[in-house]
């Protein structure tokens, strides 16, 4: 029953195969009248029961082993599923990170005027992406998307070389593998079809020999170009049924037609997406114009309120600008500093630079450029720029036009009158004495803008210093001489070209004396540098002591007091 032998058994019993005879049991059975045949029959029945019980135990043990293996397999499967789910989340997050980095690189290249074709496509499709509404707080990115040209996406392949199309194909596959949105996926798939068709057209090694005559292929393209996406889909189904039905048909022709139809179907899909892009872009332009209008309305209301409450005199010119003022603003570039047209100055030879007979040592190794060759190179580069479709637009600034607003001087006068309308404190006096700089200032931008001095309204703070000496020799009835205790400078730059750069100041020591120094203010075009002579003492730079240095809404405010001097023995 157990298949054990005398030499191979776990009990180390050399007599295992021999039958055991229970002599005492046999004697007891004889005394009870049980015959040998009956005893043998009972032994056989008992061995059968033992065999059956052993089989049951073996079967239960096998079932337990199988259940244990199934539980272990289930635990392993659950753990593997959990790891796969976690790995899937990590993979999705990694793909999302790579996609954001790719879009960020596209924005950087567009802002630096070195955009690639894939950057233009990525910024256009960003307008209809599902997460566009979530990213509307980033106004800079929206402005980048609104600055580039929006044309049919497949026109970007015009004037591209074979290497550029291959690079664009690689970039499209990269975006297609990362961008999982439905609309963007359809866009990249359609672009991939058109790009592969363009690549087969440019690459002779990939181009297949056409079975259709060129004039027939052109006629087919003209017919397919005017159909919508739904019509092309219906026609594609008809061609596929015709090919599947068999019969006497030109299989090569219909297969070539089907291949051409798939390309035009992708272009029709891109046209549909292009219409959505134009619609989204129009909505964003309207929203931006509405925000700009509200901002200008609020600024105008603030100026009008300031005009009504704080400014004395007749300021109706801000609300009504007559035709004479408009003509004056248009002719302002031809007027001098005092508003009078300068008289013509006769030509003098000193106005032109003197030619050099010899070159300096550091200039002798420079390359010589012919005037006409340089001009031809410039024209060629301009033609290359005009022929490409993905050149990003540059931001237009006021400094590019060089024009001035007709009410700039008026706004400056309003700011000046507002500051002058404030009452002087008992220990303050007007300090509007400008100091002349030692040498004439020249600016790199003075040929483009008319330099002019900014308006200013300054105050000086004077008072008594009751030190030990003054307390001994003076009293309140006979006070000591007043000394300067601080200054308040208010300079107005409403027409500053680069408003992101605040004006600066510097202290210039005078060579003749140590009692006074010059404080020089520099703002940039179109304002000249201006300086004032102040007392040479140490400043208090604590806000609690009255220090203030702020540039806001075109007004530079610099307020400071001097440190008090205490005399001790």
Describe this structure in words.
With 569 residues, this protein is of the alpha+beta class. It has 14 helices and ten strands. Strands 1, 2, 3, 4, 8, 9 and 10 form a seven-stranded antiparallel beta sheet that branches. Helix 2 (36-111) packs across helix 3. The protein is flat, with a radius of gyration of 47 Å. Mean pLDDT is 76; it is low at 130-137, 310-342 and 395-407.
Give the number of DSSP strands: 10
Distance, first to last CA: 122 Å
Low-confidence stretches: 130-137, 310-342, 395-407
Number of helices: 14
Q: What kind of sheet is the major sheet?
A: 7 strands, antiparallel
Number of domains: 3
Order of helical and strand elements: HHHHHHHHHHHHHEEEHEEEEEEE
From the spread of the alpha carbons, the general shape counts as: flat
Helix content: 40-55%
Output the structural class: alpha+beta
Give the mean pLDDT: 76
* Rg over C-alpha atoms, rounded to the nearest angstrom: 47 Å
Properties at a glance:
9% strand, 569 residues, flat, alpha+beta, three-stranded antiparallel β-sheet
What is this entry, summarized?
This protein is of the alpha+beta class and 569 residues long.
Write the layout of secondary structure elements.
Elements: H1 23-32, H2 36-111, H3 117-125, H4 139-147, H5 162-178, H6 182-202, H7 214-225, H8 229-245, H9 251-309, H10 323-330, H11 371-387, H12 398-401, H13 408-421, E1 428-430, E2 455-456, E3 459-463, H14 468-473, E4 483-492, E5 504-509, E6 516-522, E7 530-535, E8 539-540, E9 548-552, E10 555-562
Antiparallel strand pairs: 1-3, 2-4, 3-4, 4-10, 5-6, 6-7, 8-10, 9-10
């Amino acid at each position: 029953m157990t298949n054990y032998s005398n030499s191979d058994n776990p009990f180390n019993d050399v007599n295992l195969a021999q039958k055991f005879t229970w002599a005492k049991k046999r004697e007891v059975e004889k005394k009870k009248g049980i015959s040998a045949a009956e005893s043998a029959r009972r032994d056989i029945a008992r061995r059968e029961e033992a065999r059956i019980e052993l089989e049951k135990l073996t079967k239960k043990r096998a079932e337990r082993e199988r259940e244990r293996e199934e539980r272990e397999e289930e635990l392993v499967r659950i753990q593997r599923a959990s790891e796969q789910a976690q790995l899937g989340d990590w993979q999705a997050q990694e793909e999302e990170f790579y996609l954001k980095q790719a879009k960020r690189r596209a924005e950087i290249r567009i802002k630096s005027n070195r955009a690639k074709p894939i950057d233009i496509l990525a910024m256009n499709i960003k307008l209809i992406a599902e997460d566009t509404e979530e990213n509307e707080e980033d106004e800079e990115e929206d402005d980048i998307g609104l600055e580039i040209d929006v044309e049919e996406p497949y026109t970007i392949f015009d004037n591209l070389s074979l290497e550029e199309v291959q690079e664009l194909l690689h970039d499209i596959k990269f975006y297609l593998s990362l961008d999982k949105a439905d609309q963007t996926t359809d866009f990249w798939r359609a672009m991939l079809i058109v790009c592969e068709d363009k690549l087969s057209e440019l690459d002779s090694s990939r181009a297949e020999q056409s079975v259709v005559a060129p004039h027939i292929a052109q006629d087919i393209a003209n017919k397919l170009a005017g159909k919508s996406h739904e019509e092309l889909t219906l026609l594609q189904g008809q061609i596929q049924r015709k090919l599947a039905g068999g019969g006497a048909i030109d299989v090569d022709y219909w297969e070539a037609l089907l291949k051409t139809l798939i390309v035009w179907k992708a272009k029709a899909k891109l046209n549909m997406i292009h219409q959505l892009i134009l619609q989204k872009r129009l909505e964003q332009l309207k929203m931006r114009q509405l925000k700009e209008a509200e901002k200008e309305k609020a600024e105008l209301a603030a100026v009008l309120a300031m005009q009504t409450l704080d400014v004395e005199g007749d300021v109706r010119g801000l609300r009504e600008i007559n035709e004479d003022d408009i003509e004056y603003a248009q002719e302002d570039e031809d007027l001098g500093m005092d508003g009078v047209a300068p008289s013509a100055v006769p030509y003098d030879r000193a106005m032109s630079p003197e030619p050099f007979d010899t070159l300096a040592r550091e200039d002798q190794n420079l390359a010589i450029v012919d005037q006409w060759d340089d001009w031809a190179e410039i024209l060629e580069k301009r033609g290359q720029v005009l022929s490409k479709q993905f050149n990003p637009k540059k931001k237009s600034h006021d400094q590019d036009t060089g024009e001035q607003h007709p009410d700039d001087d008026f706004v400056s006068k309003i700011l000046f009158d507002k500051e002058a309308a404030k009452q002087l404190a008992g220990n303050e006096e007007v300090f509007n004495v400008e100091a002349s700089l030692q040498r004439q200032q020249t600016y790199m931008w003075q040929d483009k803008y008319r330099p002019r001095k900014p308006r200013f309204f300054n105050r000086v703070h004077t008072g008594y210093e009751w030190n030990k000496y003054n307390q001994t020799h003076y009293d309140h009835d006979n006070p000591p001489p007043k000394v300067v205790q601080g200054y308040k400078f208010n300079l107005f730059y409403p027409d500053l070209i680069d408003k992101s750069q605040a004006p600066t100041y510097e202290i210039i020591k005078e060579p003749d004396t140590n009692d006074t120094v010059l404080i020089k203010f520099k703002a940039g075009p179109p304002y000249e540098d201006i300086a004032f002579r102040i007392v040479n003492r140490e400043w208090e730079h604590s806000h609690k002591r009255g220090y203030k240095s702020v540039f806001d809404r075109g007004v530079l405010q610099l307020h400071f007091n001097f440190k008090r001097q205490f005399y001790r023995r």
